[in-house]
Amino acid sequence: MSVNVLALCGSxxxxxxxxxxxxxxxxxxxxGIGITIFDGMGRLPLFNPDLDEHPPEPVGExxxxxxxxxxxxxxxxxxxxxxxxxxxxxxxWLVSFPPFVGLPVAVLNASPRARHAREALIETLATMSATxxxxxxxxxxxxxxxxxEERILxxxxxxxxxxxxxxxxxxxxxxxxxxxxQFPVR
Amino acid sequence: MSVNVLALCGSxxxxxxxxxxxxxxxxxxxxGIGITIFDGMGRLPLFNPDLDEHPPEPVGExxxxxxxxxxxxxxxxxxxxxxxxxxxxxxxWLVSFPPFVGLPVAVLNASPRARHAREALIETLATMSATxxxxxxxxxxxxxxxxxEERILxxxxxxxxxxxxxxxxxxxxxxxxxxxxQFPVR
Lengths: 186, 186
Hints:
homodimer; two-stranded antiparallel ribbon
């Protein structure tokens, strides 16, 4: 049975390195791992706690996608030493969503110099009771490297690192011992 | 001449404590300080770098409001140990906007237990070359206090603290020696 992994990209830029990285992952994933890139990030409304229980349609699509997945793969840029509003907004809609609890998550970092956003994202994911899979959270030095999707696939070191990260993520999805729900106070 | 202060609220909840705090500030501000709460936060699209130069209308409204202001006042909640997507999204649209450089900013914290979001917000504002006015960044213990807008105005300790913070913010808007533009690499 294939492990369904949902991929979220925190940039809406057409030529986003993070989106490219996720597309490369989807192509190089080993048999038994299926990666679906969520295509509705840009359609999500800004989070409104008043709508959390009966959210607008794109939020329903996101939640359905999360519910149907065994793991999450995130690639997101750093803007002004912070997470992108886009990725945080998507996560804000998932804070009180029970299927998120215990979900194995990997955070890929396409710009290894950027550490603020990576650390903030991992803090938030841990606070949301996701299972951050440390071995699957790797830096992929794409910024300034001039690589495109094909070149990532053809660079053995990168492709191997990414496959290894995906293996760790998939393995974590089979783990038991999921922590009990623990929602942060709003 | 009155000092125009633009206020941004990072929560879209109708009963938001942060929105209440900003409304209270607008009412208690001393003569010579005029606070305008930006009412378009929820209409801002998610940040897209491809649209940064010719942004959608609500972004233009935000930028015009920033350009017409001498200082910025921010009140924003913490969600899952992170900044709200809503406030970060607004700031993402202002990263490359020159009038933001050197703009004095105060961050109010309505939930003093929440320190992650406050610290991340201040790091981002400093990276955007705003002038974070430390003396104006105060904690206002509203969470769980059961205060409404009227009660804030009628509680001398709170009202005095807020007036003092606004004085510091307004004073900073008269400072010279604005640092040169320094945009983070995208």
